[in-house]
Amino acid sequence: MRGQHILGLEHMSPLDIERVLDTAAEMKKLVGRQKNKKLSVLRGKAIVNVFFENSTRTRSSFELAGKYLGADVINIAASTSSVAKGESLRDTLLTVQAMGIDAIVMRHSAEGAAQYATRYVDAVVINAGDGAHEHPTQGLLDLLTIRQHHGKIAGKKVAIIGDILHSRVARSNVWGLLKLGAEVHLGGPKTMIPKEMVDMGGHHPSPGGRRYRRCRRGERFTHSA
């Protein structure tokens, strides 16, 4: 999947998800073994982190990851850029494109912003969160954590409880887990469960043939048959 955008897990194939997880696991071991964490995998590449929302963990993680892999990394925060003076997203993207960058990591409050960015930049676009739509890299990290602590994801039963409607991380987790064959249960008030995911406690088939459901209050998380 070299050169592919990462915009969301909904449209990412199970094979590509597994490839990312396998590569991440190997890179984690490699970086952990070396005293000098600098690798040459991305030497000569330029990455720009463009964040239109505040971030601590995601932005610093992407910055460190890029530097560990040998890339040159630039951070652009909306609050300290021309965006604060009224520059549009389109103009910001065109400016970044003119720099000749190889990848752009972007967080934005608008759903679909990462997809929009692909219209104006030739570089790889990685979605670091777009509104309440998705946060695919956090979803991938959660999948890697589950796999490292509990083994193969296929066949696992996973409950996600809370305000799923407004959580981009929860949405990415649902799609990623389903793609890898897990059984996902959603728990929370019906007003906080996305309509497209489940309809009042009914069962909906997942893309991989698995199912997810909304559990009613007080109901145990049982197999979705």
TrEMBL record:
Region (Disordered): which ranges?
A: 200-225
State the top-level EC class: transferase
Q: What is its EC number?
A: 2.1.3.2
* Biological process according to GO: amino acid metabolic process
MF terms per GO, please?
A: amino acid binding; aspartate carbamoyltransferase activity
- Aspartate/ornithine carbamoyltransferase carbamoyl-P binding domain spans which residues? 4-148
A Pfam family for this UniProt protein? OTCace_N
Which InterPro entries does UniProt cross-reference here? Answer: Asp/Orn_carbamoyltranf_P-bd, Asp/Orn_carbamoylTrfase, Asp/Orn_carbamoylTrfase_sf
Keywords assigned: Transferase
Asked if Aminoacyl-tRNA synthetase is a keyword of the record, the answer is no
- Reading the lineage from the top rank, the first entry is Bacteria
| GO cellular component terms, A-Z | cytosol
Q: What is this protein called?
A: Aspartate carbamoyltransferase
